[in-house]
Write a structure and sequence with these properties.
Six copies of one chain form a homohexamer. With 67 residues, chain A is an alpha+beta fold. The first copy, chain A, contains two helices and four strands. Chains in contact: A-B, A-C, A-D, A-F, B-C, B-D, B-E, C-E, C-F, D-E, D-F, E-F. Chains C and E meet through strand 3 and strand 4 of C and helix 1 and strand 2 of E.
């Protein structure tokens, strides 16, 4: 029943496979539940849709920032 | 004011129309509010972005799993 | 695997039971999946934590608003 | 550490830049934290994935609704 | 229709009022929509339920961390 | 920048500490980022607010279910 939602950048299917498997193992151990009860939702966010400190990731990478 | 977020697989517009209409009817009745106050957000998740039991849906379908 | 997150006001356990049962029935039919794959998370939000039109629900009720 | 998730329609990168910058400024002031601690996630939802009052936005615009 | 979900620490009702009002103003301007279409959900997270860098906020404050 | 939201049952602070630390380690490795960029939000849901298969967890435990 635990649901793990992960918002991160775009990644390969192999990375998703590893992420889901390992997050599920951790949650199953900590919650002391069978793995079959754990759901993982991976959300891929383009760098223009995420900001840290008020600045879009896409701008940070470009060095558009003056900071 | 109630907000219903649904994470599921990709579906047709007709399915979305039915899903939104019926979820809203249920919420309006249970919360005893007018339907105009209910918002539904449908999120479509590709099968490589969702895992159950630590295994991506895309792998389950392929029978990649050894279980 | 579909996950339905509902943000609404505080409700009784009987209301939660009805909400979860009926939302699940709708989702199971539209997604053409067994009900056992559907998860519902009900979040109860106090009226001071939700705003519509920039005004907290708790203020709307009190008529604190000058509008 | 505050995380602001915004679900809205599709917008230009310039609009995203402005949205992220200004939401972050507000949150930093109200929470009395440095801006570098604020994360903004912008989610763009196609009009067929959002409903108000049980009706998809895409249908409202088309005037498909009989209401 | 835009929905803004804010996860932050516990704050006073006055702070919530200001946060909701100002976030709504920004969203209404950027999305070019009337304020009445904007919903804000404020979630208050106790410091033991949030982690940055793998460390709970409650531990950071206490200096429990050995780093 | 990755944000991990975990919805599960109520757990002790020690469990939260372990959950946050280990989920962060996994995400940092898979995303190839420093741990300081990873945020974890743990949400604790009472068993009357979560349903699987249309049935509240609180009812499943009680054996209220007739299934």
């Amino acid at each position: 029943m635990p649901v793990i939602q992960v918002d991160g950048p775009q990644i390969s299917v192999d990375k998703k496979r590893e992420l889901a498997r390992r997050l599920t193992e951790v949650a199953a151990e900590v919650y002391e539940m069978g793995k079959e009860h754990i759901i993982v939702l991976i959300r891929e966010n383009p760098p223009e849709n995420v900001a840290v400190g008020g600045e879009l990731i896409v701008d940070r990478r470009k060095g558009t920032s003056t900071k």
